[in-house]
Task: inverse folding
């Protein structure tokens, strides 16, 4: 007997693994009998396949199915449900109770494949929808002039690279000038050490310093101008919106448009309702006036033939007014339903 139970448990494990792979958590609960786990798993799979098709974010919870949909499946029986679904494998309730794994396994495998196929189809459809939305968004961005902004951005980037290249070429010239000035300083120091005339030395020093100072000032001005141009180009690059910013702006404008359209629809509905109610109010006031007039003249009208004729005319007027109300009422109901 123990050997039979061990073989049954080992044959039952692949079935429970299949049920667990599609989300049936009760498959591994040891406090529930094996037959109950199998019947509950089959009912759960049948309910999942019979639904509109679970998505990755809407896979049916086993507890919800056990409380709601499994009850409905239990009424008609798992066997009848499988037959109505067109299952190619036959399964009887007695086979579930006796844990006939050879009969249960192909049925569970067929149901699990149906669930996985449904999940795969939904995933492909979601991916296709996302690709279509991205394509439409790119077309709208290109149509609204994003390509012009990108061309401007590329032009500014090329200008920035050109300025950086000029700066890198200017630095070696500065190094050469620095070496020349250092050589002049060494030469002057040598002349001072040899004892040359102070006046001639001072004049020579002044002449040797004037030209380098002019070159240095000119180089500083040129460097400041180039640095200013680089800063201006960087500022222009920062002002150009990126692709993600353009997408965000487009999304916000779409949301604002939808909100405005909803408010406009509500406003039109309120105006239509108000106008319909106003017309009905006027008609009801007219009817009230006619009824009051008839009520005040009724006693006098029935005593004479002329009075009765006048009463008949008043009643005909009421009938015409009532017909107008009948015509207006459908319009009023339509305005309220819009």
Result:
């Amino acid at each position: 007997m123990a050997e039979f139970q061990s073989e049954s448990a080992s044959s039952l494990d692949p079935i429970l693994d299949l049920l667990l792979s599609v989300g049936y958590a009760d498959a591994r609960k040891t406090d529930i009998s094996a037959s109950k786990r199998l019947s509950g798993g089959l009912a759960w799979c049948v309910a999942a396949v019979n639904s509109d098709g679970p998505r990755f974010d809407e896979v049916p919870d086993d507890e919800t199915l056990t409380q709601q949909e499994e009850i409905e499946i239990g009424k008609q029986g798992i066997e009848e449900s499988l037959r109505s679904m067109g299952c190619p494998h036959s399964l009887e309730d007695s086979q579930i109770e006796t844990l006939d794994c050879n009969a249960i396994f192909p049925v569970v495998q067929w149901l699990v494949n149906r669930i996985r196929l449904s999940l795969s189809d939904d995933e492909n459809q979601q991916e296709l929808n996302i690709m279509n939305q991205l394509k439409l968004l790119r077309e709208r961005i290109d149509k609204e002039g994003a390509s012009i902004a990108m061309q401007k951005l590329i032009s500014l980037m090329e200008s920035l690279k050109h300025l950086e290249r000029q700066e890198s070429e200017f630095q070696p010239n500065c190094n050469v000038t620095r070496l020349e000035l250092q050589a002049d300083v060494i030469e002057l120091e040598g002349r001072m050490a040899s004892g040359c005339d102070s006046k001639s030395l001072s004049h020579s020093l002044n002449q040797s310093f004037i030209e380098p100072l002019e070159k240095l000032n000119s180089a500083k001005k040129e460097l400041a101008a180039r640095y200013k141009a680089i800063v201006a180009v960087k500022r222009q690059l920062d002002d150009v919106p990126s692709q993600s910013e353009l997408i965000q702006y487009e999304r916000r404008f779409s949301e604002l448009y939808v909100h405005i359209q909803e408010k406009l629809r509500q406003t039109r509905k309120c105006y239509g309702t108000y106008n319909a109610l106003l017309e009905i109010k006027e008609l009801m006031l007219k009817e009230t006036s006619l009824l009051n007039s008839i009520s005040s003249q009724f006693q006098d009208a029935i005593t004479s033939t002329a009075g009765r004729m006048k009463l008949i005319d008043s009643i005909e007027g009421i009938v015409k007014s009532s017909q107008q109300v009948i015509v207006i009422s459908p319009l009023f109901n339509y305005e309220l339903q819009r």
In short: The chain is about 85% helix and 0% strand. The chain has three domains: 2-138, 160-239, 259-337.
